[in-house]
Design brief:
10 helices
C-alpha cells in the first residue's frame, strides 16, 4: 500500500486532515462574515454621503433674492433654514443617537431584515445631520479628509484583523477615553473654547483609531470563538451590529479629522 494510503488509514492522518479541513472552513467563513460587515458599512457610508449632499443641494441657492436666510457665505432656501437655523435642526442632530440605541438594544428582538432597514435609515439620518459640513468646510478639503480617513481606517482595521496581540485589555481604557471625549464636548458647547476643541479632536482621533482596531479584532473573535459562527439570523444580526460599530468609528474619525485638517469656508 502506498504512503498516501497508510497516512489516510492512520488515525493521526485523519485527525490532521480533519483539523486542516476545519481550519480552512473557519477561515472561509470568517472572510465571508467580515466581508459582509464591511459591505454593510460601505453601503451605510454611501447612503450617508448621498443624503448629506442631497440635503445640502436642496438647502442652498445661488439666487440671493430667493433666499430666506444666510449661513456664512451661503444663501439658504426655506428648507435650508429649517435644517440649519430653526429649532428643527436639533431633531435631525439627535435622531441618529436615538436610532443607535434602538438598533443596539433592540437587535435581539428584531428580524434581520428590520435591523438592516433601521441601519439604512440611521445612515440616512446621519447624512442629514452631517450635511452642514458642506456649509462650514470647502468641498475640496472634505474630499481630501474623507480619503485620509478611509486610508487610516483601512490600515487600522487591517492591523486589528491580523495582529496576534490580544487587544481585549485596552477596550475598557478606550471606553473611558470615549466617555471623556463626550463629556468634554458637551462642556465645550457652553464654553466654546477653540483650544479645548483642538484637544478634544486630538484625543478623539486617538480614541477612535484604537476603537477601530479593537472592534475589528472583537468582531473576528466573535466569529471564531463566539456566536457569530452559528450562521442564520444570529450571524446576520451580528454582522449588522458589527457594521454599525465600524461605521460609527469611521464617521467619528472623519468628523474629528475634518475639524483638525479641514479648510473652512
Amino acid at each position: 500500500m502506498s504512503d498516501l494510503d497508510r497516512n489516510y488509514a492512520s488515525p493521526f492522518g485523519r485527525a490532521a486532515s480533519g483539523r486542516a479541513t476545519d481550519a480552512a472552513a473557519v477561515d472561509a467563513g470568517l472572510r465571508s462574515y467580515m466581508l459582509k460587515i464591511y459591505n454593510y458599512m460601505s453601503i451605510g457610508l454611501a447612503i450617508t454621503g448621498f443624503a448629506a449632499l442631497g440635503v445640502y443641494m436642496a438647502a442652498v441657492t445661488t439666487d440671493s433674492s430667493a433666499a430666506v436666510a444666510r449661513f456664512g457665505n451661503a444663501y439658504l432656501t426655506q428648507f435650508g433654514y429649517a435644517m440649519f437655523v430653526s429649532p428643527l435642526k436639533w431633531l435631525f442632530i439627535l435622531a441618529p443617537l436615538v436610532m443607535v440605541f434602538a438598533i443596539s438594544f433592540g437587535i435581539n428582538r428584531l428580524r434581520p431584515q428590520t435591523a438592516q432597514l433601521l441601519f439604512w435609515a440611521f445612515s440616512a439620518l446621519m447624512g442629514l445631520s452631517l450635511s452642514s459640513i458642506f456649509l462650514v468646510y470647502t468641498h475640496t478639503s472634505i474630499v481630501r479628509v474623507f480619503f485620509i480617513t478611509a486610508a487610516s481606517f483601512g490600515a487600522l482595521s487591517l492591523y486589528g484583523y491580523t495582529t496576534k496581540r490580544d487587544m481585549t485589555g485596552i477596550g475598557s481604557f478606550l471606553f473611558m477615553g470615549l466617555i471623556g471625549v463626550i463629556i468634554a464636548s458637551l462642556v465645550n458647547l457652553f464654553v466654546a473654547s477653540s483650544a479645548l476643541q483642538f484637544i478634544i479632536s486630538i484625543v478623539g482621533v486617538l480614541v477612535f483609531a484604537g476603537l477601530t482596531a479593537w472592534d475589528t479584532q472583537r468582531l473576528k473573535n466573535d466569529y471564531i470563538y463566539g456566536y457569530a459562527s452559528q450562521g442564520g439570523e444570529i450571524a446576520e444580526k451580528a454582522a449588522i451590529t458589527g457594521a454599525l460599530s465600524l461605521y460609527l468609528n469611521f464617521i467619528n474619525l472623519f468628523t474629528l479629522l475634518l475639524q483638525l485638517l479641514g479648510q473652512r469656508n
